[in-house]
């Protein structure tokens, strides 16, 4: 994504000229924003429908895995709720970056579980999902400041 620099004139509140980076309105920048948003929607659908839903409805395939780990239905429902919340938060602008980081952490845990309980079967899947999540977290990092302002205002 290209960026342009626009000089800011002096005001009574500022004593120096500082550059302001504006988001690109070029075709390339627009395409990048659309691609990133599409990626977020696809990941959100994956986490909500393909990952959280089977856990929340106690589908036998999900229940079997959690029973094998000894976590039972409580662990299954907790992970399902976390995935559901993360998938929804990927679509909320102020939460996008934080959701991507949180889901990445969940995927690190899933990778460890795959290695320890399931002999590495499907262990690559969580690692593959971390890549687009990291991209979203990095690209949407400016929203973290907005979230911090909201939290401080409420406190």
Give a short summary of the structure.
With 155 residues, the protein is mainly alpha-helical. The chain has helices spanning 27-56, 60-69, 72-89, 96-117, 124-139, 143-154; strands at 3-7, 19-23. The chain has a two-stranded antiparallel ribbon with strand order 1-2.
Number of H/I helices: 6
Structural class: mainly alpha
- Based on DSSP secondary structure assignment, what is the total number of beta strands? 2
| Unreliable runs | 1-22
Using the CA coordinates, give the radius of gyration.
20 Å
Provide the helix percentage. 55-70%
- For the terminal residues, how far apart are their CA atoms? 36 Å
Mean of all residue-level pLDDT scores: 87
Described by strand count, sense and barrel closure, the largest sheet is: 2 strands, antiparallel
Q: What sort of overall outline do the alpha carbons produce when their principal axes are compared?
A: globular
Oligomer: single chain
Helix and strand element order: EEHHHHHH
Strand order within the widest beta sheet: 1-2
DSSP strand content: 5-15%
């Amino acid at each position: 994504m290209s960026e342009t620099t626009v000089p800011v004139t002096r005001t009574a509140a500022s004593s120096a000229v500082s550059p302001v980076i504006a988001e690109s309105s070029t075709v390339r920048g627009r395409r990048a924003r659309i691609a990133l948003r599409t990626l977020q929607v696809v990941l959100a659908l994956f986490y909500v429908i393909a990952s959280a839903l089977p856990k929340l409805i106690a589908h036998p395939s999900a229940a079997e895995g959690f029973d094998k780990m000894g976590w039972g239905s409580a662990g299954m429902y907790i992970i399902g709720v976390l995935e559901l919340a993360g998938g929804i938060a990927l679509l909320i602008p102020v939460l996008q970056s934080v959701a991507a980081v949180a889901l990445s952490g969940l995927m690190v845990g899933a990778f460890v579980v795959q290695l320890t309980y399931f002999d590495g079967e499907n262990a690559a899947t969580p690692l593959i999902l971390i890549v687009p999540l990291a991209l979203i977290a990095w690209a949407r990092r400016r929203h973290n400041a907005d979230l911090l302002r909201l939290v401080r205002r409420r406190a």
